[in-house]
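User:
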Amino acid sequence: MTIHLRSDRAVFRFSGPDAHRLINDVVTGQIPTEGDTAAAWALLSPQGKILAEGLAGFAEDGLWLDVHASVADDFFKRMKMYRLRAKVDIDDLRDTHRVGFAMEPSNLAHQDRLGPVSIGYRIIAPADATAAWSEDENPYHTARIANAILHQGNDFPANDAFAHDIGLDILDGIDFAKGCYVGQEVVSRMKHRGTARRRPVLISGVDAPAGTAVIAGGRDAGTIGQVVDGEAVAILRLDRITDPAAATVDGKTVNLSLPAWATYQFGDSVPSED
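Assistant: Predicted structure:
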């Protein structure tokens, strides 16, 4: 079995009697206490923008969270701040552990499942046990892009997108039944007022770098994320896409399509916020 290194992910382990409560009270998702399936989550600003996002899985009496390396320092700092007097140990494992992707479980493994989408397994192992891992990261990104799964750092920067923008409300990355967490008021308002304007859209036939604008109807509808073999995911304004066949990236026609899990349509418009 081949395990593909995901070199841009950072690992943190939370343990102690208050670890689950701390994380569950701060992030959007429903954090697991058992099982081999990881849960999607996001840490939001008070204004509802994503500061960090990733997967959380329970194993070996602790919760293992991964984030993009570009936000790891900020995530670590914020979680230590939120800890206050809670009985929680937060271990920064960036120097000692690595994250990988595989289609079968091994080492410390959690199924990478977001709602109806399953993308193999997230593998975590000590760095000295990963010498045989493949450094080709494209298989993972090919799989997630094909399923329109957006990643912070690869597709959008910190403090730029709302949880609804990347589909976490559909992909089980938001628990609408639990109590308050940071940014919860914004998430709840977007759900109940139906004010999510931007959504994940699949782009194919791309010959341009990440960050290039998608033009629809002569207007900027959003920008593409990481490109692998001409495929990418973009967070786009649905109301600006009335003719998906007419969209362009860098002056060249591209193909737009909605992910299989989408509950939205091109051309959807939403009421304005007060």
